[in-house]
């Protein structure tokens, strides 16, 4: 596997943002959503939760 260019994990997350947001709205927990999309996202769980907070929940930090 070749290393990712900086920012590509964010691009992959944003491409799936609406799907992830809908699954979270339906009641799936973050861990299950992360596991479902892990291969496509290619990021750590901690980075995934930061992106959920920033891009879906609209929280800073």
UniProtKB/TrEMBL annotation:
Q: Name one Pfam family in it.
A: DUF5338
| Lineage: superkingdom | Bacteria
Name this protein carries in UniProt = Uncharacterized protein
Q: Which organism is it from?
A: Acetobacter oeni
Classification from the root reads: Bacteria, Pseudomonadati, Pseudomonadota, Alphaproteobacteria, Acetobacterales
């Amino acid at each position: 596997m070749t290393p990712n260019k900086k920012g590509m994990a964010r691009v992959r997350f944003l491409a799936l943002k609406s799907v992830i947001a809908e699954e979270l709205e339906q009641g799936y927990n973050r861990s299950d959503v992360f596991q479902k999309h892990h291969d496509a996202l290619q990021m750590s769980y901690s980075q995934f939760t930061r992106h959920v907070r920033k891009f879906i929940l609209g929280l800073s930090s």
